[in-house]
Amino acid sequence: MSELPACPACNSPYTYEDGIQYVCPECGHEWSAQAGDEALDTGLEVRDANGNLLADGDSVTVIKDLKIKGSSQVVKVGTKVKSIRLVEGDHDIDCKVEGVGPMKLKSQFVKKA
């Protein structure tokens, strides 16, 4: 039997699997089984332009027109980006922008949707 991780919210050892998620019966916190171990190991904390904490899978909105390097395309202000993934580095958001394709964004140019 594999050992399940403790709850990241309350550190309860009584977590259980529910499909593709882990669930804590004590505090009710749910988190992804695939990204759960990775998020705990990295300790990555990324905040948007307003100071809100971002997490994998969040949706964000672009707050400034962003020129795409090496192209004449522009990501317009107000563009909504779904299902972001947080990575380390200067461009700390990995995502797929509709109509443009996969790219990396800086968190200072987005706000949580």
Distance between the termini: 40 Å
The percent range for strand residues is 25-35%
Helix content: under 10%
- Total domain count: 2
- Assembly level: single chain
The CATH homologous superfamily of the largest domain:
SH3 Domains
Q: Give a count of the beta strands, DSSP E runs of length 2 or more.
A: 13
Question: Numbering strands along the chain, what is their spatial order in the largest sheet?
Answer: 1-2-3
SSE ordering: EEEHEEEEEEEEEE
CATH class of the largest domain: Mainly Beta
Structural class: mainly beta
Gyration radius (Cα, Å) is 17 Å
User: Counting H and I runs of at least 4 residues, what is the number of helices?
Assistant: 1
CATH topology of the largest domain: SH3 type barrels
Name the CATH architecture of the largest domain.
Roll
What low-confidence regions span 5 or more consecutive residues with pLDDT below 50? none
Protein name: Alkylphosphonate utilization protein
InterPro entries: YjdM, YjdM_C, YjdM_N
Domain Protein YjdM C-terminal: 46-113
Pfam family, one: Zn_Ribbon_YjdM
Describe this structure in words.
With 113 residues, this protein is mainly beta. The protein folds into two domains: 1-38, N-terminal domain of TfIIb (Single Sheet), CATH 2.20.25.10; 59-112, SH3 type barrels, CATH 2.30.30.40. The protein contains one helix and 13 strands; from the N terminus they run βββαββββββββββ. The strands form five sheets. It has a three-stranded antiparallel beta sheet. It has a three-stranded antiparallel beta sheet with strand order 9-6-13, with no helix packed on it. The protein has a three-stranded antiparallel beta sheet with strand order 10-11-12, with no helix packed on it. It is elongated. The mean pLDDT is 87. Residues 3-32 form the Protein YjdM N-terminal domain. It holds the Pfam family Zn_Ribbon_YjdM. This is Alkylphosphonate utilization protein. Residues 46-113 form the Protein YjdM C-terminal domain.
